[in-house]
Design brief:
The complex is a heterodimer of chains A (about 90) and B (about 375). By secondary structure, chain A is of the alpha+beta class. Helix content of chain A is about 25%, strand content about 35%. Chain A has a single domain, classed as SH3 type barrels, CATH 2.30.30.140. Chain A has a five-stranded antiparallel beta sheet with strand order 3-2-1-4-5, with no helix packed on it. Chain B has about 375 residues and is an alpha/beta fold. Classes of the chains: A alpha+beta (about 90), B alpha/beta (about 375). At the A-B interface, strand 4, strand 5 and helix 1 of A face helix 1, helix 2, helix 6, helix 7 and helix 9 of B. The structure holds iron/sulfur cluster. The site of iron/sulfur cluster has 14 residues of chain B, from helix 14.
Chain lengths: ~90, ~375
């Protein structure tokens, strides 16, 4: 119910009704972008941005920098674990 | 897919799992029991089972499946009211697919559709609005349910209907709010949750600040978490690190989408259209104060509750259903007396068996604990 899918904004199709066309893993779909508009940016600035789409609405812009940071942390957890793995030897599975 | 595949890397998952195992073995609890982490959101329940994370994680760590599946907590009386609305000849009743099979007191929406009711599954409330515009002689009702994640979409659809003067569109509003629900869980007797996996998509609307009381007053960690396997594993790892250090903080694993303050536009749309109800009746949990919203005075013309004759009767689940205990994490799904017997995804007695986000359906569909089903504890 609360799931969403990342999609990329390709075009603004109806500025008045705040509708953009997104590419949702290969499928083109029109979504409402009211939640991702801001006073400080032009509506056109949204093009190429990645957003999270939920029931036909773009709910949030994906923060590319934060995504990278999370992946870096994930990789680091991996490194620490590799050491642990060496010590423990005992692989399960 | 970008922002998805990177968070599904099995090699990475394996390494984090190792580290989780090490962490788990160093955490000492005052009593000899597993570490219990509640995933509040049904989306997480679904991911945990879909990727078999519950089987990969150490035995010392237990997921408790929380009340965050909006379909699962729908009381029978609400389904009955949907049916009351849908049985009007001039009504087109629109809903997300998940709600179709939820049992009411005597039937589900799917049954009414089979009997000839005009019930249509839609992907978005905007699709329902479109149906209203195309069928001016019909009354089109959208069944709005879900937590804060889904509220902006229905709020904005109602605002759109008002802007365009669509006067045959109605919202049957059954949205629920997350904070009172988590509080009810924390206050319920017998509760032993060590930490929370916070609902990622609710959090991108409300932010992480509203969770502060969980750390400050209840001294439990919460990590707002994404839905991919690595998101969940990293969040579990973050909770365990807090537990190990004796900390209780609100942290954010899902920073690519969630910030502290939430989404202002979304929150504004919610505030423009909805107001808090005094209480809302939950299936299995009973009534929780201020846990639901209704349409406010300004948008009353779009309120199905005002436009249709509905009944406020509480309809309790059959006695054999133990959904309440399962929802609160007191019983495991397979410990319910009717699990896999009278209650299956094909013939659900309780709502937890209906949606793939429901703990019982997830357990059943992904074939978990087969031997436990046969030897369940009384
Ligand atoms: S098995 Fe059915 S009745 Fe029992 S708790 Fe699960 S959904 Fe409810």
């Amino acid at each position: 119910m609360c799931l969403g899918i990342p999609a990329q904004i390709k075009a603004i199709v109806d500025e008045d009704n705040q509708i953009a066309r997104v590419d949702l893993s290969g499928v083109s779909r029109d979504v409402n972008i009211a939640c991702v508009l801001s006073d400080t940016h032009q509506i056109q600035d949204l093009i190429d941005q990645w957003v999270l789409v939920h029931v036909g609405f773009a709910l949030s812009i994906v923060d590319e920098e934060e995504a990278k940071k999370t992946l870096t942390i994930l990789a680091e957890i991996g490194e620490l674990s590799a050491v642990v793995e060496d010590i423990n030897q005992g692989e399960d599975s | 897919m970008k922002y998805v595949d990177e968070f599904r890397n099995p090699q990475q998952a394996k390494k984090i799992l190792k580290e989780i195992e090490v962490l788990c073995s160093t955490i000492k609890l005052s009593t000899d029991r597993p570490i219990q982490i509640m995933e509040v959101c049904g989306g997480h329940t679904h991911s945990i089972f879909r990727y078999g994370l519950n089987q990969l994680l150490p035995e010392k760590l237990d997921f408790v499946h929380g009340p965050g599946c909006p379909v699962c907590v729908l009381p029978r009386s609400v389904v009955d009211n949907c049916i009351r609305i849908a049985e009007h000849k001039e009504v087109i009743f629109t809903t997300f697919g998940d709600a179709m099979r939820v049992p009411g007191s005597s039937k589900s929406l799917l049954d009414v559709k089979a009997e000839g009711g005009d019930i249509r599954m839609v992907y978005s409330p905007l699709d329902a609005l479109m149906i209203a515009k195309k069928n001016p002689k019909k009354r089109v009702v959208f069944f709005g349910l879900g937590f804060e994640t889904t509220m902006p979409s229905t709020a904005l659809s109602v605002m759109q209907a008002a802007k365009e003067g669509v006067n045959n569109f109605y919202l049957f509003c059954n949205h629920i709010t997350i904070i009172p629900t988590i509080k009810a869980v924390l206050d319920s007797p017998g509760m032993r949750i060590d930490g929370f996996l916070g609902p990622g998509h609710v959090s991108l609307i409300i932010g992480t600040q509203p969770y502060d009381f969980i750390a400050n007053q209840y001294h439990k960690p919460l990590v707002a978490a994404g839905f991919e396997p690595l998101d969940i594993l990293q969040s579990v790892w973050m909770i365990l690190k807090q537990l190990k250090n004796g900390e209780a903080k609100i942290e954010n694993q899902y920073a690519r989408l969630v910030n502290d303050a939430g989404n202002a536009n979304a929150l504004n749309s919610i505030a423009s259209v909805f107001e808090l109800r005094d209480f809302f009746e939950w299936r299995g949990l009973g009534s929780i104060n201020h846990s639901g919203v209704k349409i406010n005075e300004k948008y009353r013309a779009f309120d199905a509750e005002a436009a249709f004759d509905l009944k406020e009767v509480t309809v309790t689940d059959p006695d054999i259903c133990q959904c309440g205990e399962v929802l609160k994490g007191i019983l495991k799904p397979w410990q319910c007396k009717v699990f896999g017997k009278q209650c299956t995804p094909e013939t659900p007695l309780g709502a937890l068996m209906v949606s793939t986000e429901g703990a019982c359906s997830a357990h059943y569909s992904y074939g978990q604990n087969i031997d436990l089903i046969n030897t369940h504890h009384e």
